[in-house]
Amino acid sequence: MGWVGVGTLVTTAGYFLYRYPPRSWTPDHHSPPPDPRSQARPASPSEPLPTKHVTGPSTPRPIEIEEESSPTTPKASASSAPPPVLAVPVLNLEGEPGTSDTRSVATNPPAQQNMNGSTKQQSPDRNDQISEIKSQPPSLTTPSLLQARKPPTLSTPTANTSSLMPPPSVPRLRPTPQPNRAPPGLQPPRSNASSLMPPPSAAAGLRVPSNGGGLSNSTLAPSLKKSSRKVILDPGYSPLDWAARAANPKSQLRGAGVPPGLVRVTPSMLKSQNGRKDRDAWTSYQGKVYNIQPYVPYHPGGKGELLRGAGKDSAQLFQEIHPWVNWDGILSECLVGILVSENDIQTENALDAMD
Ligand code: HEM
User: Fold this and answer.
1) Which intervals carry biased composition (Low complexity) (predicted)?
2) Which of 77, 148, 170, 321 has the fewest CB atoms below 10 angstroms from its CB?
3) Which residues, 6 or more positions from 336, have their beta carbon under 8 angstroms from its beta carbon?
């Protein structure tokens, strides 16, 4: 692929250099040479091509070569084969202009036919002669070199028409790697540690990760999946109102008739405290029993939700719905006692009886 591209580039460049510059050069500078060239051509007009090509404007090119290497070309022709040598340069130089010159449409088809037929037959001779010419006259100028290189391009006559197209990809524009950094003024501000913290909320001080651990997928799932089931609390029952009430020692949040100090609560006792029949609602959480009755009007989830855990352990429900809520921070003043088994109470009562 690379060689093909290089070859196409060379051929196109050579073609343009050959086509345009020579026109300006040949008529201006070398008007006389065409005559000798035309004279030299008749010597080789064994084929019909040379005659047609003589009319082509490409005649001056060979003249340039002859002018520079005119003494050499006759020598080469004399050494190898005089008549073919003279004919070969004429054919090479004239073949291109013959095809390139579009003066008359009628001349083109024969020129191509001649090119096709002649190139196939004469291409090896041309190459040999061209190589001889190159080797013999070391003082060949750049245009001569270009002309010598052109024959390979002429091997494909269609390439002349296609060569009119712009060169494939001579100027390869490599996109300069632009730095991704934006101007200093446009750079986004670095996120501080504070920006990553959750926004403060009214109950922020009351929320802590449950079990002292970080948030897990299970903890975030309920808040993302379920819509808010919060209820509209009555005036005076906001979280702040509850905090104020909990801070008041006269509130007696543990319930009336509860002895001071922690009470040993059996499962049967807990079950009886279900909030019915004018009894306070107790619930257990992590081995501790709380009186949740005073918190019912303050519960953001509503009375019914909170009372679902009345008379039993609410750890599972609590963890499923809002594990981030600081249970102990909210209900610390509602702590009644600790949950014990029925056997423990019986043995204790037996020991008390023995005393
Ligand atoms: C049987 C036990 C409980 C159930 C079934 C329950 C149910 C609920 C429900 C459904 C919500 C609304 C959640 C939402 O916004 O989508 C809620 C919110 C809340 N509950 Fe409970 N709850 C229970 C126990 C408790 C307890 C014992 C406390 C206090 C220690 C409490 C404090 C809260 C708080 C602070 C919110 C607001 C949460 C927030 O704003 O993110 N809940 N509860």
Assistant:
1) 70-80
2) 170
3) 254, 255, 258, 262, 263, 265, 282, 289, 290, 291
The ligand 1 atom at the shortest distance from the C-alpha of residue 307 is 1
* Same-domain check for residues 7 and 147: yes
For the stretch 101-141, pLDDT in tens is: 444 333 444 444 444 434 444 444 445 544 444 444 444 44
Instruction: Concatenate the DSSP letters of all residues of 309-347 into one string.
Output: GTTEE-HHHHHHH-TTB-HHHHHGGGEEEEE--HHHHHH
pTM of the model: 0.45
- Last residue of one domain, picked from the residues 145, 163, 181: 163
- With cut-offs at 50, 70 and 90, classify the pLDDT of residue 53: very low
Q: Does any domain span residue 180?
A: no
State residue 306's pLDDT score. Answer: 97
Is residue 198 included in any domain, yes or no? Answer: no
Pocket test for ligand 1, best of 299, 303, 313 (most atoms within 8 A of CB): 299
Report the residue among 220, 307, 319, 321 best suited for mutation to probe ligand 1: largest number of ligand atoms under 8 A from its CB: 321
Q: Residues with beta carbon inside 6 Å of ligand 1?
A: 203, 226, 228-230, 292, 299-301, 305-306, 308-309, 314, 317-318, 321-322, 325, 327, 330-331
- 149 and 294: one domain? no
Q: What's the 101 CA to ligand 1 centre distance in angstroms?
A: 94
Do 152 and 33 lie in a common domain? yes
Number of domain units in the chain = 2
Question: In this structure, are 16 and 120 located in the same domain?
Answer: yes
| Claim to verify: residue 146 and residue 274 sit in the same structural domain | no
The residue whose CA has the least distance to atom 43 of ligand 1 is 301
Place of tokens 């090896």: 124
Q: Which residue CA neighbors atom 25 of ligand 1 most closely?
A: 306
